[in-house]
Amino acid sequence: MNNPTAKASIEKLETYKPNFGKSKISNLIRLSANEGALGTSLNAIKALNSFTHNLNRYPPQVSDDLINAIANRYSLDYKKIILGNGSDELISIITQAFLEPTDEAIYTEFGFLQFPQAISVSGAKGVVARDVNFTANVDNILSKINTKTKLIFLANANNPTGTFISKEEVIRLHKSIPSNILLVYDAAYSEFIINNDYIDGSSLVDKHDNVIMLRTFSKLHGLASLRLGWGYCSEYILSNLMKVRGPFSVNTAAMLAGIAALEDIQFQENSVAHNLEWMPWFEKELKLLKLDFQTSVTNFLLIKFPDEIFNNAQSAVKFLAERGILVRGMDAYGLPNYLRVSIGNEEENITFIKQLKSFLDN
User: Fold this and answer.
1) Is there a smaller number of Cβ atoms within 10 Å at the N or the C end of the chain?
2) Count of C-beta atoms within a 10 Å radius of residue 22
3) Are 154 and 166 in contact (CB under 8 A)?
4) What share of the chain is helix, strand, coil (3-state, %, to 5)?
């Protein structure tokens, strides 16, 4: 008797497992997941604490209150906003809605790992566009386009490199692609970027029908555990994504916390200011330790370790974990001599650098 078999595109996949690191120490410093350094807005926590009734009721399929809060906060058209169970869900349903097995989708060399995963799950073919100096390259992306290309994924700024391409290059990319190709523009770290040469993608959505901008509450707003993301796109794209998205995708607690977080402007400003203060400090300390790193506009750094056997990145991961500090190894990206480290709070940052120095001195 034959057993049930999954689709061939699924059977060949490895399960996507976010690698936050492991340690036997209970009081951990977790700098491995790019989470918000200052925790969560007290307003959001108060909103959750007040949520004590009607747990037996399904959430609304669409939260008009949260959508209006997003529209007001970022001066966007509320009719073009879609909510998701994290931006991960939106990435998945985009590929389900727009990719046939005969299609191709382009993603960048060191882009978010969820991009190729979602493409493969859809049954389509993923095509890699090589980066240049750890930065997405428009010409390399354009060179991969053919008649089968249906989607282009671009994370800007990019995780795990922390780099971004300029407004001019993003506009050049969009102008150069056929109108039937959907540009998926992941702007998860946009709030941290204080640079006039950056574009968050919303203006492209307002002018064109083949762009969707993705955003998240997991970074700046510190709501990673509630899984809340959103997208901004044409009403045509939105209507088709809603056909694929689960009817109760976002839970009520996330909706309430999201609204409260958006309204707490002071917390958002404090989070950005904290990042702007500690990023230069990190860079200075790493230079003193004679470690190379990729200049970042996000809330994390990609650090390169020397090639010596006892001082490499993999040894550093183990050494730090034994001392209760979790960082992200980059083996999954083919970068075994690199670590990605998030900016933490003051005590976490100082402790990390102290222990890193101890590792390098061994």
Assistant:
1) N
2) 11
3) no
4) 40, 15, 40
Closest CA to 167 of 185, 141, 182, 180: 185
Q: pLDDT by residue (tens digit) across 32-68?
A: 999 999 999 999 999 999 887 788 889 998 999 999 9
Inter-CA distances, 152 with 29, 115, 231, 344, Å = 36, 10, 16, 32
Query: pLDDT per residue over 104-115, tens digit each?
Result: 999 999 999 999
List of residues 6+ apart from 49 with CB closer than 8 A:
none
Burial 323-354 (b: 16+ CB within 10 A, else e): ebbbbbbbeebebebbbbbbbbeeebbebbbe
Superfamily of domain 8-39+266-361: Aspartate Aminotransferase, domain 1 (3.90.1150.10)
Taking each helix axis from N to C terminus, what angle separates 42-49 and 252-263, rounded to the nearest 10 degrees?
150
> Which of 3.90.550.10, 3.30.2280.10, 3.40.1000.70, 3.40.640.10 would CATH assign to domain 42-265?
3.40.640.10
Per residue in 308-334, pLDDT (tens digit) is: 766 699 999 999 999 999 999 999 999
Least confident range of 4-8, 45-49, 68-72, 199-203: 4-8
Cα gap 275→102, rounded to integer Å = 43
Residue 174, both tokens: 């969009």
Residue 250 to residues 72, 112, 128, 226, 350, Cα–Cα distance (Å): 20, 22, 31, 9, 37
Which DSSP state fits 132? Answer: B
Taken as a whole, the chain contains a residue count of: 362
Measured torsion, CA atoms of residues 266, 271, 275, 281, in degrees rounded to the nearest 10:
80
Whether 8-39+266-361 and 42-265 share one fold: the answer is: no
Q: Which amino acid is located at 294 in the chain? A: Q
Nearest to 221 by CA among 39, 15, 74, 82: 39
122/7 Cα distance (integer angstroms): 10
Taking a C-beta distance cutoff of 8 angstroms, is the pair 111, 153 a contact? yes
Q: Tell me the domain boundaries of the chain.
A: 8-39+266-361, 42-265
User: Over the range 39-68, which residues count as b (16 or more CB within 10 Å of their CB) and which as e?
Assistant: ebbebbeebbeeeeeeeeeebeebbeebbe
